[in-house]
Specification:
CATH class: Mainly Alpha
Mean pLDDT: 85
Number of domains: 1
CATH superfamily: Jann2411-like domain
Radius of gyration: 19 Å
Order of helices and strands: EEHHHHEEHHEEH
Low-confidence stretches: none
Largest sheet: 2 strands, antiparallel
Shape: globular
Structural class: mainly alpha
Number of helices: 7
């Protein structure tokens, strides 16, 4: 998971959007607090959409899509059925015109053709459709094994055995905790004696 000062990215576009919200922790973790923040997220996200217009309605649409993705992914991970309104919302947004690429005039790179916030959300919804609808991708959705973290990530490692949202964050924390516990046992001390 790459870390921005306040935005995290877990390697899959639709799941990257879910990390911008409360993830069940409460509103103090809300990151999409204004059109400026959504625009900033879009500019540093894998979409790299700098300088697009984002309005208050786009923020509300992004939060609604984010919530639907979060709840459907949670239901999938729990082995339950997702709420039909959430699936309908993802499908409705995903059917809208998505971002389109065009070749730069010098043919040395590509860029987005007339990008909009609505097209970006449609692209994100389409990513969720593919992630959740393709069985080989769906099985690679995991929740971080750090009990203090609720991040859901896409495991793109070759063996599919990744345990933490970010090996250099949650993975380091768990490994350090286990190391300290092993050394307490080895020293004859227990957490109760400290």
């Amino acid at each position: 998971m790459s870390i921005s000062p306040d935005f995290g990215f877990v390697g899959r576009l639709c799941l990257d959007l879910t990390v911008t919200g409360d993830m069940g922790y409460g509103t103090r973790y809300e990151r999409l607090i204004s059109p400026t923040e959504l625009q900033r997220w879009l500019s540093i996200s894998p979409l790299r959409l700098a300088n697009i217009r984002v309005g208050p309605a786009d923020v509300e649409d992004a939060k609604a899509l984010r919530g639907a993705i979060w709840r459907v992914v949670g239901a999938v991970l729990a082995g339950g059925a997702p709420a039909p309104p959430d699936v309908r919302l993802i499908n409705r947004v995903g059917r809208e015109p998505a971002l389109m690429r065009e070749l730069h005039p010098g043919a040395e790179s590509m860029r987005w053709y007339r990008p909009t916030a609505a097209a970006a959300l449609a692209t994100i919804a389409q990513d969720a459709v593919v992630l959740l609808g393709e069985p080989t991708q769906r099985v690679r959705i995991h929740r971080c094994e750090n009990p203090r973290c609720r991040v859901v990530f896409y495991d793109d490692s070759r063996p599919g055995l990744r345990r933490w949202c970010a090996p250099n964050r949650c993975g380091d924390r768990i490994r350090a905790k286990l190391y300290r516990e092993r050394h307490r046992i080895g020293d004859g001390t227990t957490p109760e004696n400290e």
